[in-house]
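User: Sequence recovery, please. Input:
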């Protein structure tokens, strides 16, 4: 299960089912409840129909397969050596450790990737005249519909809006179309489909992108900015693509090495085709997408899973360039064989990195150890509470995902005690009013937020946590040095 999925994507779906209606904002006005929710609605439907909370995973995985089919179908129109489709599939699957983040239970990213890339591919077809010119307007509408769906999924769809806008401008210039008419034709369905989410936020909060406010120090923007691979200096952008998985990972993690190798090939193959005067419009547009998408991420957030569209387009670009290069070589079969062997090795090495997840999937590892990473170790405190407590309210600020595994009438809260003073008397009154007697404290997260008290109301959480620890007794303490997990359970005296 994915952390964000457990934190707010799935709770939104469950709340829709529980309340038997869709209302705004969801999740008790928590800022997550203001975001676009179309996929959460998609998740709620099969859960409600089949009466099984895990059925959404089938929908999520199926969309990933559709994404693979979309990529291979698009690339197949441009490469002469059809066997390269195999390399595209291998390249896609070799991103598996990366994709497990995007495919973690409850995440919605793969929907955004599918809609956004479908929209982008249609525009490329129009630009390169791969569609009937008479059908340009119909295809523009179809692209706009997919972009509208991407924007209705999450704010990450705005990156596709930026890249699509540039390709749309190229179409207007190349085909001498009316600028105003074409933009209006494209923007209208995008607004009709996705405008609701942004207008709603503007009416509620005055900010169409709430809770994100670019150029300010709001808590959501700070949380996104907290994920940093390197300083956001422009010169570092040229290194950033090679180090997406971290500065010291290229020679340690197979999939990080594969990623760096893919970017190296892109630049070398591009230079080769420029030298041979064989670099086409398709390659330039795909290259532009990769650079623009990563540039947006570089200055926004360095969360790995958000880079998936750029890496998928990188696979397509490399396949197209490799196809052109092979056609210029005499010993094509030998070259293709070597590339296939390298790809197979990278795929095997990348999949091997999933051995821990595989052990969980086949039941080799116990549930608690499998859930320890997602829950930050709080699952061990939850397990203790399930065995020893009944009908108790447990406070946990630092990692709420274990709350879904509470049993015996025990429940979770992360109240900020709004309306109370944050002195001892005010905090005590709040805890009493909310029937809170227990606290789960994840030491690593507590220390991290103590150093960044301005993020996510951390100063309030720290004050309440310190009061409880001062007036409680420790009833459970779990420490795992190799996993760097330290979690404690306190009971108010």
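Assistant: Recovered sequence (493 residues):
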């Amino acid at each position: 299960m994915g952390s964000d999925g457990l934190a707010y994507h799935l709770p939104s779906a469950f709340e829709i089912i529980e309340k038997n209606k869709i209302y705004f904002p969801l999740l008790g006005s928590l800022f997550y409840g203001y975001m676009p929710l179309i996929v959460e609605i998609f998740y709620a439907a099969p859960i409600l129909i089949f009466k099984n909370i895990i059925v959404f995973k089938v929908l999520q995985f199926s969309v990933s397969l559709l994404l693979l089919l979309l990529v291979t179908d698009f690339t197949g129109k441009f490469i002469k050596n059809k066997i390269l489709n195999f390399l595209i599939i291998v390249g896609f699957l070799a991103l598996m450790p990366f994709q497990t983040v995007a495919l973690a239970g409850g995440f919605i990213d793969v929907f955004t990737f599918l809609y956004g890339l479908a929209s982008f591919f249609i525009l490329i077809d129009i630009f390169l005249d791969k569609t009937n010119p008479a059908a340009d307007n119909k295809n523009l509408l179809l692209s706009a519909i997919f972009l509208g769906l991407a924007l209705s999924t999450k704010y990450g769809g705005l990156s596709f809006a930026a890249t699509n806008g540039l390709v749309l401008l190229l179409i207007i210039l190349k085909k001498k179309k009316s600028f105003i008419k074409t933009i209006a034709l494209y923007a209208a369905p995008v607004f009709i489909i996705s405008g609701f989410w942004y207008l709603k936020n503007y009416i509620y909060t005055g900010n169409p992108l709430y809770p994100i406010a670019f150029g300010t120090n709001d808590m959501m923007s700070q949380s996104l900015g907290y994920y940093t691979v390197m300083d956001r200096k422009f010169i570092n952008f040229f290194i950033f693509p090679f180090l997406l998985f971290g500065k010291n990972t290229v020679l340690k993690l197979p999939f990080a090495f594969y990623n760096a190798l893919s970017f190296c090939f892109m630049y070398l193959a591009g230079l080769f085709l420029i030298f041979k005067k064989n670099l086409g419009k398709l390659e330039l547009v795909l290259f532009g997408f990769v650079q623009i998408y990563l540039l947006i991420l570089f200055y926004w957030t360095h969360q790995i899973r958000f880079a998936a569209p750029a890496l998928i387009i990188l696979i397509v670009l490399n396949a197209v360039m490799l196809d052109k290069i092979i056609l210029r070589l005499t010993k094509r079969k030998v070259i293709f064989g070597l590339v296939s062997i390298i790809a197979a090795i990278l795929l095997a090495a990348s999949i091997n990195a999933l051995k821990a997840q595989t052990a969980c999937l086949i039941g080799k590892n116990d549930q608690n150890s499998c859930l320890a990473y997602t829950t930050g170790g709080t699952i061990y405190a939850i397990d203790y509470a399930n065995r020893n407590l009944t009908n108790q309210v447990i406070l946990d600020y630092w990692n709420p995902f274990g709350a879904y595994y509470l049993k015996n009438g025990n429940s979770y809260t992360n109240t900020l005690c709004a309306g109370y003073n944050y002195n001892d008397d005010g905090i005590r009154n709040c805890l009493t009013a909310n029937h809170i007697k227990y606290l789960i404290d994840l030491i690593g997260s507590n220390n991290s937020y103590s150093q960044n008290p301005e993020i996510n109301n951390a100063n309030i959480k720290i004050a309440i946590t310190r009061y409880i620890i001062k007036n409680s007794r420790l009833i459970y303490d779990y420490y795992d040095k190799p996993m760097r997990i330290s979690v404690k359970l306190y009971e108010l005296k």
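Residues 375-492 form a domain with the Rossmann fold fold (CATH 3.40.50).
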